Amino acid sequence: MTTPFRIAPVLVWALFATHAALAADTLPLTAAQKTNLGIVTAAAARGTASPALTYPARVTLPPASVRVVAAAGAGLVTQLHVQAGDTVKRGAPLVTLSMPGLADAQNALTQARLKSQLASGNAARDQKLFAEGLIAESRLRMTQADAQSASASLAAAQTAMTLLGTGKVSGSTITLTAPIAGVVLDSAAGPGERVDAGMALLKIADLSKLALEIPLSTAQARQVVVGQAVTVADSTASGRINALLPQLNASQSVLARASLADPQGLLRPGQSVQASLAGLQSAQALSVPSAALVWKLNAAYVFVETAQGFTPTPVRLVRQNARVAEVGGLAAGSRVAVKGVAALKAQWLGE
Fold first, then answer.
1. Hey, how many other C-beta atoms are within 10 angstroms of the C-beta on 131?
2. What is the dihedral of CA 309, 314, 318, 323, to 10 degrees?
3. For the whole prediction, is pTM greater than 0.70?
4. If we measure between CA atoms, which residue out of 238, 273, 321 comes closest to residue 58?
């Protein structure tokens, strides 16, 4: 039985050198040589729209979706109405605080309100008496000034009361309520703990408004534009790119941010996902495997298969990820090398 004939690698390179002059820009290659070098080709695909390219991404919470409930004054936590993971409606009770300064602030507010009402009444009465010529103008001005001063004191007392926290007040206790509807992310204090003014007690997030952070290489970032559509694998979540950060992060990546709507509620902040960036309309671009690309002096090339062998062909890179590249400059129906590319490049560059 005859053993199949195989060409040794040394002979392959010799054949390359011998026939290099057959075509100045073509690497001559027979079918047997192609097999021995493990060269595989694939057709460049054309579409009316560029294919979606997939990148690893992380689900985040945009700042506008998060609210922090804090203690505006020193106090004692007497009751915690919720815990991390609970879903709350706007206005729902969150935490009850005992605040010694609350009773004093309430009393000051009541006194300021009564004084303002009395001063306003006096000013209205003197205005009528002055119109009837029964009092001097100086007395009217004095009562009007008293009314203005009382009104300012009332505004200050109301502000002081507001700074102590918004919620349901009862004596020296106040129950802080949810500023938005959402999910409690964490709780920093429990019953019996003392808190200081400005201490964050709970964090609430509206999970219906999420975001994506997509790290890209500088080359990939040039292929992404603000407004480009984004989808998430294995979910119905979708959104659009709304920002490309101008600086590189610690991993030397350009961070793309996208808004994200998640109708099914399947995603969670911090979750790692695969994000697909929808392609832009391009009638001239073709899709090829990223493995087909080779570089020479910062220019991209592919090896196009011909009847004589393979021709190094410059292409214009439109977009690329780890699997797929979108390029211009190829003729429709071109077949390019996707395996054995290193051997072709070595022969082409004489390495």
1. 10
2. 40
3. no
4. 273
